[in-house]
Amino acid sequence: MDISENLDSILSTQDELEPLLEESPALVQKRRSQGRIIFDRFVRNKAAVVGAVFLILLFLFCFLGPTVTGHNKPDQQNLTSVTDTLAPPSWKYPFGTDDLGRDELARAMVGGQTSLLVGLSSMLMAIVLGVGIGAFAGFYGGIVDNLLMRLTDVVLSVPLYLLLFVLSATFTDGTPRSVIILIAIFGWTIAARLVRGEFLALKEREFVYAARTVGAKDFRLMFRHILPNAAGPIIVNATLLTSSNIILESVLSYFGFGIKLPNASWGSMLNYGENLADVAPWLIYVPALLIFFTVLSLNLVGDGLRDALDPYMTER
Amino acid sequence: MGRYIIRRLIQAIPLLFLISIAMFGLIHALPGGPAAVIFNPHLTAAGRAALVAKFGLNDPLPVQYLKWLSQMLVGNFGYSFQTNQPVSQIIAERFPNTLQLFGSALVLALILAIILGIIAAVRQGSIVDYTLMTLSYFGIAMPVFVLGLIAQNVFAVQLHWFPPSGLSSPIFGMSPFQSFLDHLDHLFMPMCVLAVAFIAGWSRYMRSSMIEVVKQDYMRTARAKGVSPIPLLIKHALRNAVIPLITVVAIDFGSVAGGAAITEGVFAWPGMGLQFLDSLDRRDYPVLLAMLLLSAVFVISFNLIADILYAVMDPRIRYS
Question: Which CATH architecture has domain B90-313?
Fold first, then answer.
């Protein structure tokens, strides 16, 4: 009798709970996916959201802007009247023109395409290289680790800008591709160190032992099991690496070593505009501010990702 | 303590060797090799062969490397392709200018970073802290040459507050005091631009280090024993908080040999960085390689000095 009474009371309270749940479904929290947790934490960081929004707008500006606004002739020289050359920003020329009458808005958009492309591609190459090297070093340890870390130390100890200047003067030809490869060759070191550290820590975990017991080979272990767990710091590093790569490319182009005519980037716009800066300061303000805000937004997003991803396992 | 230093030295030497090998490889990887620029296009084949033999370019690479290294170690960096001056003389001429620029920027940055770091730490969470940290964040994100260009344009070209470039004005008959002031006038902008980048990073570091230190028990004990706040801050907190910052400063100072290249380029300051850029334009490889090697040696040495300094100031590190 007691048991059935208890059972009845339990069942009846469940019936009482049901209508409550219908009225206030907020009491029931659906389990969020990992991605959703990270996204929610990211969105809580207002500065990071501002940075992300700026980056999205910037991409639209650079890649869709030319076709949408009609400012898609960056090399067109408007020489019809004297007010068309060296014109300060106005409705007709929102970013002004240079001494050959070229529209700075169009140049900013097309140059931005190159700058962003170089920054992202070199980052991807560097990350692939760095993750590969770091994974091998961390997983195998011993001599392999020692050798690869020595290599990393050597690359880190050389003065980066000086060496980049020399190499870009000698080996690049002004196209984005050569600049991308050059920057990537020096960008992998921090990612490699990071990944090596993560692998050293993760390879002793139970899931690795379990996978090994089932017969997983080394490569599979590294890239299918361990690497996804190390993804967080890699993503953060990737974002910050993009921002430093954009700066690197701008510096190289500014000194005349990176992107050269006919390709344009924000750095080469600075190079060109520097001589005219006393009469046409907008020629350097436009690319300079674009570079600055891009780098700032990338840094904000990177920091926001760092906060959102660490640790991402705990559900709030 | 001595053993720690020796251990770090022993670790640094293979790295220096590896870097020298990498630089040597670089000479030979550049198009045409080390011989490319010195050979007159009007040379006959026999003449060219004679020059190659004279310079020992036919020797096996390891032999060439050892010969090159032995010369580098005694300071014989070769002769400039452009001016035939000994490279060491060129570097010796330019180094004081870079040292002026870098050194003054460093000192200014250190003083301001410590002050701002302390203020932000003591008023943690307040509007002052928030403003300072936001500004330092902007400073970190701002690339040096962008800041330099904008500052040069705004302050020198548009407002005419400072001269835009160079070391001194081309005015004859200035008294020594006037030329000293003129020199400071030219130094001011590049120094500030260079300092901003350092201040941004260091003040954050100082702030977090200070916050760490203030939480320690010995601070509370000292305060309980009656030490008033400001001497407490300076004598106890500052001394301990400054330790990690000094090591960061030492490491950043390591980039003196090449780190100011961008600022010097923007402001046409005749230091080692500008010499590097000029030599690069003329493909003057002996100068370039000597400077690359020198920079790498500086970087490694100052990393070593930073480690040793840290051990000197914080005894806990030595025994690990």
Answer: Orthogonal Bundle (1.10)
